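[Meeting: bench + compute handoff]

Bench side (C.D.) handed over the final construct sequence. Compute side (W.E.) agreed to return the predicted structure before the next meeting so the bench team could plan truncations. Sequence as handed over:
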Amino acid sequence: MYGVSGMGRGHASRSKVVIDHLLAAGHDVRILTSGTGSAYLKESYLENVTEIMGLTFSISEEGVGIWRTLGKNLKEGGQLYPTLKQARKAFKEFRPDLTITDFEPFTPFVSRLHRVPFISVDNIHIITAAKLSTPKAWRKDRLIANAVIRGMYTMPREYLVSSFFFPELKKGQERTTLIGPLLRTEALRQRPTDKGHLLLYAPTETSGKAVLELVRRTGRKAVAYGFPQQGEEGNITFKKPCTDEFLKDLATASAVITGGGYSLISEALFLGKPVYSIPIKGQFEQMLNGLYLQKLGYGLYDLDPTKRRLDRFLKELDRFKTRIADDRKKQPERFRGNEAAFRIIDEEIAKATRG
């Protein structure tokens, strides 16, 4: 049984990498997911996907609204019992040997009820597992993130934490293994070149507008996704969502300007592209990704982007590219964790089915 968070496409995209591996190995897989994850995964596994209730964030111009988010999810509280009932029914009918969850809370809970072992495969548990150095001003956001993550589920048989940065783990994290990013096959097939354009991806409408204006002022050619408009406007070409086209534009870009989402940052770094990251305020996981991206010398981040900072990013592209290339040559496993993840997951399946 595979539980997948439906918040954004990152969880679903990463889970698809593992699910394809499991299916290719001859395993039978059922998926419980919600929201965006449901729409994305049904494209490939329609008959095996069951849509359930999922948690969501409330985001405005000020960033993530904690109380708005809480209120939004409490309104969905009436779906809690039906969702648990639906999940229990799925477990009874399918009788899984092992559960895997990518930050989806219902599958671990029901797994315990049915005495089915479970493992966690995601990127977000780095927040609770690792020793992190973050600004004092982020303390509230960090505490909230810790509380939310610990409240989702605890004590799987193994935490597989996918990451492009590798801080030291805290004491008592014997169940945790840090691995490189889980990259989809379509990204692995790309052959990176540099055609001189910037790739823009809008995480939210507000941050997207701010970045568009800054990029227009640079005069640099850019290809933009995630915006309502289409076609050419000055130096920017707007395109509708399309995975193949997007990855081609990513592979041929000089650099990437995006939010703090883990999946795109990871794919960009694998393809050798520096990133200017604009995390959503209050979303600590995105802020953390931007911070460590900058610490590693792979790009810059800003919660409030400015023309000065964007100009600095563009002037230092060669330095960022050299750092990415050098680190990838020294430690390629930190830029691609597929094989490490598959090996550990296969071992856990063998334990769960032994005898």
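W.E. noted at the follow-up: DSSP finds 15 helices and 16 strands in the chain. C.D. will use this when planning the next construct.
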